[in-house]
Amino acid sequence: MRIGVLRDHSIKRITFSYNDGSYAVFADTNYFGLILPNEFVELNATSNGVVKLKIGAQELGEFSKVLLVQTVVNTSLTLTSKTPVVKARKYKDDFEISCKSNALTVVNLVEMDNYLAGVVESEGGGGKHLEYYKVQAIMSRSYALKYLDRHKKDDFQLCDRVHCQAYHNMMRFTPIIDSAVIQTHNLILTDLKEGLIDAYFHANCGGQTCEPQYVWNESIPYLSTFKDTFCIYTKQATWETRISQEKWKSFLVRNYNFPIQDSVCADMMFNFNQNDRKAFYLDPIFGIPLRDLREEFNLKSTYFSCRPEGDDVVINGRGFGHGVGLCQEGAMKMARSGYDFKQILMFYFPGSKVIDWHIQKVLNQKSIGLSESTRN
């Protein structure tokens, strides 16, 4: 896997220092020794698109590409961005560093399982049940394989930002995640035609998952709305906030020409009841997507009802996130209640199945070979 890391920052200067195991330092075709305990490599971006290399205090020149290669497998380095200052991170496996647009491009050349362990810890945190971590590992593997060439133009495959998958460190604090990744090795989530699915997830659905078209104007066969009672007593199941009636009214009038001159409509403006998830505020005739209100007022979800009180609109909401796909807090509760990873995945993705992608790839290759031999 080629994963672009530290992509939230324009890195001008960075150090790679010993964490465990030694690393060989290569720059273009040159070998410059090892990174051993108490040693570090410093790399600087230059205005002419090359990388300035230092080992310790010794300047070694400027190069188009620097490689840091582990001398034994499964070791790691500490990365510390100096300009700008970014909290140190640790990653396993190898690194490739080049310079583009006056900033360093740092690529972690990482084994899939090591990458997934880091992603699951970054996305799911610690203290969860093994079966939940298995679920997250399968979803993350499926996502990675489906979007493997998303950043092809950048000379890596995926990045460490949320639009790919959060990958802020190697797995450091939760050894059970390694077990989950290993026990689900090669397992992926597909639709019934064995195409990789978009394994969307969110923090809490508030008791009912959301139709994908309510969020992205797109219907997805293996995802639909349904009641979920596993998450309704968790910490993010309900919430409340207040917004001034003036701000609320101004947004509706400015963006959707809400007919406040009509007394019936004006009386409706601040009163909305949503027992089941909907796509639009008040009524579809007004053309006000709930997702727009969520974005404008930074609401935790689109699953809310509201009423006027004094000069405010009181918003009582349920859930946290877009609501599509797997509800993390619901899945965690299912795992604690004794459901295994397959049962959890089938509950949230009922039009899908779990398969071994390596076996499927071999079968597909044999099928192609058989078809070609038949034609010949």
Protein model, in words:
The chain is built from ten helices and 20 strands. The chain is an alpha+beta fold and 376 residues long. The chain folds into three domains: 2-110, Tumour Suppressor Smad4, CATH 2.60.200; 137-228 and 324-364, no CATH class; 238-318, no CATH class. The strands form five sheets. The protein has a seven-stranded mixed sheet with strand order 4-3-8-11-12-1-13, with no helix packed on it. A six-stranded antiparallel sheet has the order 7-6-5-2-9-10. The chain has a three-stranded antiparallel sheet with strand order 16-18-17. A hairpin with a 5-residue loop joins β5 and β6 (51-55). The two termini are 37 Å apart.
Descriptive tags:
single chain; 376 residues; alpha+beta; Tumour Suppressor Smad4; 3 domains; 7-stranded mixed β-sheet; 6-stranded antiparallel β-sheet; 10 helices; 29% strand; globular
- Decide which structural class fits the backbone: alpha+beta
Task: Write down the secondary-structure element order.
Answer: EEEEEEEEEEEEHHEHEEHEHHHEEEHHEH
Report the principal-axis shape.
Answer: globular
**Order of neighbouring strands in the sheet with most strands:** 4-3-8-11-12-1-13
Whole-Å distance between the termini?
37 Å
How much strand content do the residues show?
25-35%
Rg, alpha carbons: 25 Å
Which spans of ≥5 residues are poorly predicted at pLDDT below 50?
Answer: none
Largest sheet: 7 strands, mixed
Helix content: 25-40%
Averaged pLDDT: 93
Number of helices: 10
